[in-house]
Fold:
Amino acid sequence: MTGRFSGRRAVRALVAFGLSVGTVTAVAGIHYGVFTAIGCYVDAYGARDPYPRRGPLLAALSMGFVVAFAVGGLAQGNAWAMVAVLSVVAVVSTLFVHALHPSGPGSYFVVLVAAMAAFLPPTGLTETAIQAGCLALGTAVSWVSGMSGWLTRPFRPEERAVSAAFRSVAAFVDRCGGTEQDAQRDGLSREFITAQRQACTAVHSAWAALDDARTGRRPGSPPARRMRLYAFMKRLEVVLDAAQSTGERGGSPMPAGPASRLRTAADEIEAGREPDLGRSGTEGPAAMRKAGRESSPGLPQPGQGPGPLPLPPHRSVAADLRHMLSRSSSAPTVALRVGLAVAVGTALGAVLPLLHPAWVAVGAAAVLQGGPGQQPAQRAEARFAGTLAGVGGTALVFHSYQPGTWATVAVAAAAHAITRALPPAALSVRTMLATPVALLLIDAASPTSGLGRLAAFRALDLTLGLALGVAAALFVRGVPRRRVCLSVSNAVAATGDALGEHLRTGAAGEAATAAAWQRMTELWAMHAAVPAEEIRATSTADRLWPAVLAVRRLLVWDRLSPPAPPAPEDGGRVDAFLRTLAGATHAHLPGTSGLRAAIPPRLETPHPHHHAELHTRLAALRSALEDPVPSPPARPPAAP
Structure:
């Protein structure tokens, strides 16, 4: 769903938009149909979330739409009240959406709803309530549309995430294939690093989808299909680990057979069928097992099945809110930036002679929200190009043709459906298609404006808003370095607690391991947030990735390694070693001279007696912090 056109989503969006807007238009007129159309924008969220989470998530966002509209309506006609209200809505909604972390465009549409209400001509409370009711109808129909797939394929979102993970790991196994000399040569290649990152990201996303699916479920009663997906991911985790070790160390290459079986399994899983993974798992023939043993001698091979599984711990909304406001979260900085841009945009919209001043505030928020993996400047460029194309296309098509009410509803519904079906990365195309929707609906509701004049002001107003968004990104620069450093430090320290307890007791401890996985998940989110909040590219995200990968591989070892005799001394040494590294990263980014100076020169990487593989992974973490350039670690030494 993330990288291709989704015909199924297009049909659902078309039916929901056409049914709700058409019904309101037929009963009360296009003026009220416009507010219903705004409510349908809630379908931009939750498309990749599992249904147990999607339902409450869309309900919360629908309520947020209605509240934002009502609050914005209270500020109508008073410029300073609009500035205060919209800036507060922008900050609160950004924090709210960040805590919910749905798939979708951040708080952008919540700000849009509030801005549209605030810049309407002043009306009474009764009229505002009727408009909010029409908006609520649009959100309700979109909620039903978004949840309709639950009746036929209740596990489809999880299956798609797991299927994507299988395909990405298969591509990575292919990269690790060939002769031993090929593996040694490719260990540092850009292709290897790219395939490794894509595989790890897909596996992380699949685990996150399975974790999100636990929302609202009673403990101990997961559906059988979800448990099967859970078991498939467990097997895939070990295959990924073996492939990583093989590629990094230039050991025995991965055979070609398992990659094709992984792809076949991915097709079966996505279709909702049970894949044939073989008696001993996805590893296939003996060559795969041999490669895995030589690369990761301290880990079990797929099919051995030690528990517990490497599923990140499920955290409550209250815990998410507490973390969101903590010093290791990127949310406060992002919210401040969005609030500042919206406040200035609202003030300018209120004093300048603009036709639809709400577009200035909305444009400012658009630069700072949405467009996964893109920086603010890139989002502004994509939205600017899409807006100009949309305005030009609208002016060209409707230059001599004034569409009627039902032609407007039909065209808007079709454009809305195609927009929702496009992949998130197609930001310019989605903006191009969304522009006629806004222009046609507003022109139908306010026919005195004229479509041509409306289109010209749309380009002017939104361009001003985009410029404000870029300026806000320059003024409030990205995620503060101290928050990035603290996120790394927390993850490394929690990993030390988990590994120390594992070595002292001989097996992974649930509480410490769960806390470590949560900290790793937070570090992963920070790594993803950094480039998306930078006005210009830096090396921060590239410096973070090797550390993210090294911490994750330590936790995979912690989860999957078989029981061993307790070693309290080894546990103490490993814990102290990682706490020293955590202290060094508390104020310094990986790869900086300050971090290298903060690590004691005589600090020795521990050699646990019963876990030679662990020494290799500890050394890899230290290397990732001191010198983030990926380098193949040495083979694990013999146990002393």
